[in-house]
Amino acid sequence: MSDVVQVDIELLGRHFTIGTPAGEQDTLLEAVRLLEGKIATIQQHGKVMDADKIAIMAALNIAHDLLKTKVGEGLEMAAFQRKIRGMGEAADEALRQSQQPLF
Question: What is the domain partition of the chain in residue ranges?
Fold first, then answer.
């Protein structure tokens, strides 16, 4: 089992202590910088929003960006996930049909 280290961060004026596997601190801090950038972009667009709404909007933006990320032969992550889900459903259906009595 890997060691967990505590990393202190601040987002939207709130302090958080987050546990992360040893050696993953830099990745966590990069994620914090990415989130800070999304938050700043949302705040610059003018509308005054409470911190919870800003955090949710930033998380949705990041999730949307992730799903648009290309994998393999130019396939978007969301399309890739749909294809995998479809293959799983097809496999489940084939198993169900193979377990039905022949007579």
Answer: 4-99
